[in-house]
Amino acid sequence: MEETYVRLVELLGFEKRFxxxxxxxxxxxxxxxxxxxxxxxxxxxxxHTFHKSLKEMFPIEAGQIEKxxxxxxxxxxxxxxxxxxxxxxxxxxxxxxxxxxxxxxxxISRCKLLTVFFRxxxxxxxxxxxxxxxxxxxxxxxxxxxxxxASEISGPIILDTYRVVADFEKTSKHEIAxxxxxxxxxxxxxxxxxxxxxCESKRGWVPAAYLEPLDTPExxxxxxxxxxxxxxxxxxxxxxxxxxxxxxxxxxxVEVIHKLLDGWWVVRKxxxxxxxxxxxxxxxxxxxxxxxxxxxxxxQKPPPRxxxxxxxxxxxxxxxxxxxxxxYRRNSRRYLQQKGGLRAENRNSRGAAKSPLRERKNQxxxxxxxxxxxxxxxxxxxxxxxxxxxxxxxxxxxxxxTRKRVSFHGSExxx
Length: 415
Hints:
5-stranded antiparallel sheet; alpha+beta; elongated
């Protein structure tokens, strides 16, 4: 029986997949000598791994003994980062590589290694179902990590695609100018609000406030406020310029209660809250770190705030959640009061001989009857009933809708 071998490989394109994680595959139509045609899917790292194995199997034909004897085609190693444009270029590179590979002498083009690589796999016949929640849009070629040498390559990493909501003019050589509607790939998301992006052949820093996601706009990008607070130290002084901002002194300690993606965090200082540039803050730690951060801040500027973009045009119907400073302050006071109440409650339960429940029951000075030890233990473990809050405290802690209704009914009673 004649041995089967590959007679033609045709590159059809590439496809983005989301299962089990985001990655891409190349679609290839493999034609065999028995006239059968099979569709297979391979990643670029798989191609490169195969290429290295082929060179090891045929060192003479790979030019490892004498360069002039090389007949195996070259295949570029995966880059650290690829753009959409380089993805298209890689398609033509792979197509040419496969064509040259199949036309090599039979001892190479019909070897078992090559035949097995292009043979249909179970996952080729049953590819993962497309994710209907995400559009198969333009994507960046995988970024493979090269550790030490080019022989160790990681799997594909897909960069997030974002859309520009308003025109942005660069103010330094490290930034890139963008227009509303442009699509960029995010290389790095810095907490200071400056994101490193690439748009076609341009790369540079862009304010996160000018960007919105394409793939999953329905998911919350920003974390919820943390009213417990996280201690940070100001490594640079800041003077508030808007009503919802707060001034900082160098070395001042504040509590961060909400980290926003645009780089303007909400901090608590005493009873006040306000926005400050996150790049002027550093998590509480060693003093030497503060000095290093302070020196790094000398030539850096805060990014523009999201609220300062007046001509933003979003493609999503659901607007970003915006919390007012009144809400921040009210929720912060409520949280601290509850936290303080729990601490006081714990102290009272440990130090007081009688619980408030027992004191309330004994307001008429009725002599307490002696009880057994078991009953005493039950009474000792009785839950603590807090005193009824005042009307002012209830109004402060209730929701805006409840407050409006109470005010409305109160006005009716007065009339």
